[in-house]
Every structure is written in structure tokens, then in C-alpha cells.
């Protein structure tokens, strides 16, 4: 009861996890006061999860943290899922990220938003699965914005998919007509295509 708030205050997540495991082993995890302290500790550490694990590509730790939070009775919200999906993308955990995306609504009653779709498009795109990414874009319930098309566009450059790059570029030219970066990126893709001896149509 005394140590868990200290862990929360210092964002000492690993130490808090050890205490959680110890409490479970000796049967204290069902105690209401302990459960409250665990919830507070994991909630406090959530901001650290967002800033540290995600930004440094530590997707496995992000997944483990979220699972610990769920185990402690703290339900993930849309912000948690954004951080989790982003962490999976940065760490190449494609199947894990897709699993969590699929269970957002059905298990946790969190309606996927534009930012979640953007994370999954980036997740698939980084893995070279750009065809699956554009298929996801075409099936989503809301209109795709610059974040989604931008993630797909960048993935097409990395994996040299000119056909889908042109689709994404046309969307971005409409959505962001003053963003010169999109024109530069498409030009770079054309140059890479030329270097590979391929032709294009526009």
C-alpha cells in the first residue's frame, strides 16, 4: 500500500510490476485497497508508456504494460490504443498490432478512430504490406485524411510501389494542395522508379 504510490510517483513501472506479481502470489491482488493502488500506479505510468516505450520503438514493453493494466482492471482507452499501435508499428510487431486493432471494439468497446487507422496503415506499410494497407483504407467507415494517406504514401516510397503511391498522392494533392512535400515525395518516387528502369504513367 505504501510502495505502490511511490512507484506511481516515480513512474517506476518495473518495480510496480514486481510488487503486483508478488501481491498475486500471496493472494493480496483481490484486496480492494491493493487493486485501487495498482490501478493508480498503472494509470500514472500510462503517460510514461506513451512517451518512452512508443517513441523508442519498445513495442514488446508497450504490449506488456497494456496487458498488466488490463490485468489490474484498468480498461484501455483510445489514447492507450494509439500508443500501443504506434509502438507495434515502430517495433515491427505487425500481427500483434493487428490483433489489438481487431479487438478494440469487440473486446474493449473502443471505437477505432482516424488515428488508429493511420497507425495500422503505417504498421502494414512499414512491413511492405501496402496492398493490405490500401484495402484497409477502402473499407474503413470514415473518410481518410492526410495522416492515413500520408502514412501509405511514405510506405510506397520505401517499398517502391508506384501504383499505390500515385493513388495516395492524388488524394493528398486534394487534401493538402499547399503541401509541397507531397509533390517532392512523388518526384522522389518517380526518380527511384527511373533508376530501376521502370516506366510510369500520370
Write the topology of this structure:
Elements: H1 3-10, H2 13-25, H3 32-53, H4 59-71, H5 78-91, H6 94-108, H7 114-126, H8 130-139, H9 146-159, H10 162-175, H11 180-195
Helix pairs in contact: 1-2, 1-3, 2-3, 3-4, 3-5, 4-5, 5-6, 5-7, 6-7, 7-8, 7-9, 8-9, 9-10, 9-11, 10-11
Pfam families: E_motif, PPR
Organism: Prunus yedoensis var. nudiflora
Keywords: Repeat
Strand content: under 5%
Decide which structural class fits the backbone. Answer: mainly alpha
Shape: elongated
CATH architecture of the domain at 113-202: Alpha Horseshoe
Features:
202 residues; mainly alpha; Serine Threonine Protein Phosphatase 5, Tetratricopeptide repeat; 75% helix; elongated; Putative pentatricopeptide repeat-containing protein; PPR_rpt
Structure characterization notes:
With 202 residues, the protein is mainly alpha-helical. The protein has a domain of 90 residues: Serine Threonine Protein Phosphatase 5, Tetratricopeptide repeat (Alpha Horseshoe). It is built from 11 helices and no strands. Helix 10 packs antiparallel against helix 11. The longest helix has 22 residues. InterPro entries: E_motif, PPR_At4g14850-like_plant, PPR_rpt, TPR-like_helical_dom_sf. This is Putative pentatricopeptide repeat-containing protein. GO terms for molecular function: RNA binding.
